[in-house]
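Hello again, I could really use a second opinion on something today. For a while now I've been wondering how a particular protein folds. Please have a think about how the structure follows from the sequence. Here's the protein in full, and shout if anything looks odd to you:

***
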Amino acid sequence: MREDIIFHITTKAYFNSHKKSHEYVPESLDTEGFIHSSKGDQVEATANRIFAEETQLLLLVIDVSTLTSEVKYEQDESSGETYPHIYGPINIDAIMDKLDIHAEKSGEFKIAFSSNT
């Protein structure tokens, strides 16, 4: 998986309500000091763990090389996994794509990424 791309999971309504003219500023930036994001191989598990009650999600594909805020890879104490945390707003032009993700009939999200690079 490419290291210069990370993902932020949200809902379309939440994204639209926290998007300003040139940046996206979710509440976690104020409450925790950073924005949660995932590497490609973490997206499916994160979606199913955090958004189990949702039927549709919005997946932001973020180009780290054009992101104006600092990204730190930090270990989650409970799982031991390392996640990318964004320490500042997400500038809109760093969002390469916005993907609508729908839950399966079982209620689970099936999200897979692969890369030959």
The longest helix spans residues 43-50. DSSP finds three helices and eight strands in the chain. The mean pLDDT is 92. The first strand starts at residue 5 and ends at 10.
